[in-house]
Structure formats: structure tokens, C-alpha cells
Amino acid sequence: MKKKALIAANISSDFKSYLHANEYELIYLDEKDLHRHEIVGIITSTKLHLDKPSIHQFPALKWIGRLGSGVEIIDKEYCAEKGIAVASSPAGIANAVAEHCLAQLVCLQKNIHSAYLEIRNNQWIREPNRGMELEHKTVGLIGYGHTGMAFAQKLSVFGCKVLAFDKYKTNFSDDYAQETDLNALQTAADIISFHVPYNKETHHYYNEAFINQCKPHIIINSSRGAVVSTQDLLASLEAKKVVGAVLDVLENEQLLQDINHPHWLLVQNLLQHAVIITPHIAGYSHNAIEKMCAELKQKLASEISD
């Protein structure tokens, strides 16, 4: 009898072939009968959160592969108790996220987004769309893991000074970023970018108190939406304490139609507040899917082939 793997994310054709070669039948999340009692492995992204009650429904489960870097969607402690291997793929997503952050930042600094929309409306407006250069800007990175490092490398080509703070790392200064403390970063940074996991400690990390410690700056968030307090960001944009925002994630990405929610107000005032928002696609490139699957294949090789 073939082993069964639940596929709750887009995976590469190579990874599918690898699972088939190891005698797995692939079961997809939208199928009515998930064969829960026979599922041996799960590939997930953000579509399927695996807390203790969810994992308990899969008594035969031996391994979980997370496409992406954030493992807050998986109860790792319970998995450890049950002997379930858990692997994520942060290296596979790093370049895609770094490129996306850089592309959004350049668009914001050069007013490409506003100029594009005006051209579509047959408006040829030059003076208000004069841009700012990244050269000599100080960029502060909160978190210096795979994506933070990849972003620092790309920023170095633009002649930026990159400062990095990571609560859980020390002595990590390199050719691309200079290690610093949080206060020094807040004081110096023209641009602040978040590359942190989401947990109780980072919930609304970027809030009114944080912003008040900074000079006027641009905020970039490609990590998790709830790292940023949308209410405080909106108020700070209106008060000019924040001069621009580059976001790939929002606190609750299902609330864009709620006119009473700060998300709606943020989206309605994109041009007024120099805001660029994309729909959680920074790490979702075609190339990143291939890279993440290759990383999981390597990390879970012994469990998959068992």
C-alpha cells in the first residue's frame, strides 16, 4: 500500500516526482476525503495551520514540510513529543523576498507606482514625481537571518549603509551589514525593514512607541502582517512620522473590504500616504517554489524515504 502525503501548498513537479518515486500517493487539501488516518507526511504553506488538535487528527504522521520560513503555524513542541520531524525552507525563499522588497522600495522612492497610474489616466506629470535616490541612505534591518542577509547584499549595490539588529545573534557584522543595537538603528535609519518571525514577542513590534523612537522613515514589512500595528502605522503616516510604507503582508488579509478597518483606510490612501502594498507574494516566485522544494527534499530525505 502506498504511503500518503497531504499537499496543502503549491509544490514543484520535481518534488512531486520525488514523492511518487518514494511510493507516496498525493492527497490534496481540497479533496473531501483526506484519509487522515493514513497521512504520513504533510507539505504546507500558510493555507494549513497545524496546531495540536489538527496534528492529533493525523495519527500516522511522521513528517511536516513547511514551504517558507515561518513555523509559527506548526506546534513544534507537540511534534517533538510525537516524534514528528518538522522542516522549513528559509534559504529557498530568501532571494525572492529580498528582490521583492528592493523592487517595492525602488518603486516608492522613484514614484513609479503613482506615475504609472497617472499615465494610465492620460496624465503626464513630472515635477511631483521627482524621485529620491537610495545611495547614501541608511537602512535598518530588524532580524538578520536568511532574508535579512539577502536584502543587505542587494542594498549594498545601491550604496546604502546597512545596519542590522538581531536579538538572537551577536558578532554577525559582515561585508553587507553592520551589527548595532535597536536604539542606534532607530535613531539612524532612513528605512526600516522587518525580517522576523511572528510570535508573542513580535506581535505589534512596530507600534506607536517604536515609531516615536525613530526619525521620519520608510517602513518595509515582508515578514508577518501582525508585526506591524496597522492603526499606529496609519496614524503615523498622517502625522508624517512615517514618510512611506512598503508592505507585502497585512494584519488580517481578509479585511480589505471592511470600511471600518484601518486596512481599508490604508489602501484607500495609497498615493496620498506613499504606500505600496502587494498581496503576500514576496516569496511566491516560481523560482522560490523550486528552491524551497529542493531544500525540503534535502532536509526530509531520511523521513520521506523511510
Describe this structure in words.
Helix 4 (90-109) crosses helix 6 and helix 4 (90-109) packs antiparallel against helix 11. It is elongated, with a radius of gyration of 21 Å. The protein is α/β, with parallel strands linked by helices and 306 residues long. The protein is 35% helix and 18% strand. Strand 11 (242-247), helix 10 and strand 12 (275-277) form a beta-alpha-beta unit. The chain has helices spanning 13-21, 52-56, 76-82, 90-109, 112-120, 146-156, 182-188, 208-212, 230-238, 262-268, 286-299, 301-305, and strands at 3-8, 24-28, 39-44, 63-66, 85-88, 138-142, 161-165, 178-179, 191-194, 217-221, 242-247, 275-277. It has twelve helices and twelve strands.
Notable traits:
alpha/beta, five-stranded parallel beta sheet, 12 helices
List the helices and strands and how they pair.
Blueprint: E1 3-8, H1 13-21, E2 24-28, E3 39-44, H2 52-56, E4 63-66, H3 76-82, E5 85-88, H4 90-109, H5 112-120, E6 138-142, H6 146-156, E7 161-165, E8 178-179, H7 182-188, E9 191-194, H8 208-212, E10 217-221, H9 230-238, E11 242-247, H10 262-268, E12 275-277, H11 286-299, H12 301-305
Parallel strand pairs: 1-2, 1-3, 3-4, 4-5, 6-7, 6-9, 7-8, 9-10, 10-11, 11-12
Helix pairs in contact: 4-6, 4-11
